[in-house]
Fold this sequence. Notes:
The chain is of the alpha/beta class. It contains eight helices and seven strands; from the N terminus they run H-E-E-H-E-H-E-H-E-H-E-H-E-H-H. The radius of gyration is 21 Å and the shape is globular. The mean pLDDT is 90. One of its GO terms (molecular function) is acyltransferase activity.
Amino acid sequence: MPRRRIGFWYRFAAVICKPPLVVLLRRDWRGIENIPAEGGFITAVNHNSHIDPFAYAHFQYNTGRVPRFLAKSGLFKKGFVGAAMRGTGQIPVYRESTDALSAFRAAIDAVNRGECVAFYPEGTLTRDPDGWPMTGKTGAARVALQTKCPVIPVAQWGCNELLPPYAKKPQLLPRKTHRVLAGPPVDLTRFYDREMTAELLKEATEVIMAAITRQLEEIRGEKAPETPYDPRRERIEQRRRTQAQTHRNSGQTVQEEGLGK
């Protein structure tokens, strides 16, 4: 199946975005040989900085296989940004609406047409204190199992040193290095042709996230935590801690009132 043409808008965006990226970041890009030359596929990428979509798009643009990202629908509505998002073929995500599943249908259609769809399986910037990938959402696994396309795990590191997660000001000096390592396709064949239950999607997602994490371990030269950071579990634990503290405070207040009497 032929690859998607890069097109005017992608080339125009590259003319605008590449010069500042080249100035701000050195590049250490590896694993380009694992990006398929033909046919539809998914890249599953970790997310640790607001600027890493631009830097990662630079990496993949240079492979000749431009990615289609899933992005918030509000970015498509008006102005130059909206025109660029539509012109480059990005996929709008309509959250909490009747159109919420349209992004997955569009992703499946894009893969079936021989295009690349780039997923951030974490769904947002990592909240892991040390920048490791969190638990993932199941969208990438769902598309992969429905299309049986290759899933390329990609780890990146360095944009988070230029602009740390949730920071407002970049740390320009010393000049940072954007490191990317694309791995071989994740083996999901054992999940094929099975009922697509929540448990199956969760297990396939864990396999994808583990592959991304292994790539990041190689980049960083460190071992990731055995258990990935889970925002949902952390929220539950935080709620329990808050309730326990409230209970202790209430007990202390009752005791003090009793002593006062």
